[in-house]
Design a protein that fits this description.
By secondary structure, the chain is of the alpha+beta class. It has a single domain, classed as 2-Layer Sandwich (Alpha-Beta Plaits), CATH 3.30.70. It has two helices and six strands. The strands form two sheets. Strands 4-5-1-6 form a four-stranded antiparallel beta sheet, with helices on one face. The radius of gyration is 11 Å and the shape is globular.
Length: 75
């Protein structure tokens, strides 16, 4: 299992996460920040647990993020 954690409030909308994993990330037209699809929000932090199949693409998204607001945990 993979946990994806997104600190959306600090997102700058660079679009790298969407390029790395377009099935999991989309851009919000209202504020220009990325959205972690199907995530649950708690105090501005979005979390999603998903299958191992998504690990590589989302790890790339986290590594590409210039403000480091994406964290990937494999468990």
């Amino acid at each position: 299992m993979v946990r994806i954690i997104h600190h959306r409030i600090r997102c700058i909308g660079c679009n790298y996460c969407i390029e790395a994993a377009p099935y999991r990330w989309v851009m919000d037209d209202a504020d220009g920040k990325s959205i972690l699809v199907d995530a649950v929000e708690k105090r501005g932090i979005y979390t999603l647990v998903t299958s191992d199949d998504e690990y590589t693409d989302n790890l790339e998204a986290a590594e590409l993020c210039p403000v480091k607001v994406i964290r990937i945990e494999k468990f």
